[in-house]
Amino acid sequence: MTALVWQDELNTGIEVIDNQHWRIVAILNALQEAQDGGDRAAIDAVLEELVDYTLSHFTFEETLIEDAGYEFCRAHQRLHEIFANRIQQYRERFRAGEDITDELRVMLSRWLFQHIRSDDRAYVDSVKRNMLKLTSDTSEGGWLSTALRRFFGSNK
Fold first, then answer.
1. Cα separations (Å) of 108 from 21, 51, 117?
2. Superfamily for domain range 14-152
């Protein structure tokens, strides 16, 4: 199987989300490399990274869309839950001795690219509007001022 290649059409325009999606593609390619090497321990380590990173990404993304008031937030979270359960099952099957890497890579690449193009694209406007609102509020108690003070000790 050939390596997955990021396509510009997958960019949402939300840099932090695009970077996370790109990282998931890189992990999928690492899974292929581990499989090509025939090292089950390496495959297991990549599967662990894939599960952990994907779950972290989902949590981050869900927080963004919830904070943005995205109207289909709960439905989007449910898609993530179903997918998370699915990849957990693949990991369990692998640990039980099955060779699931080809099946997993095909399923993941199809699901990920479809999910980005459809489900994620649907929340982009809501999240961008919310991010603009948050970062444009430069008042003393606003989000930007509070975040700058919290992380850098001042708001200048």
1. 12, 11, 14
2. Hemerythrin-like (1.20.120.50)
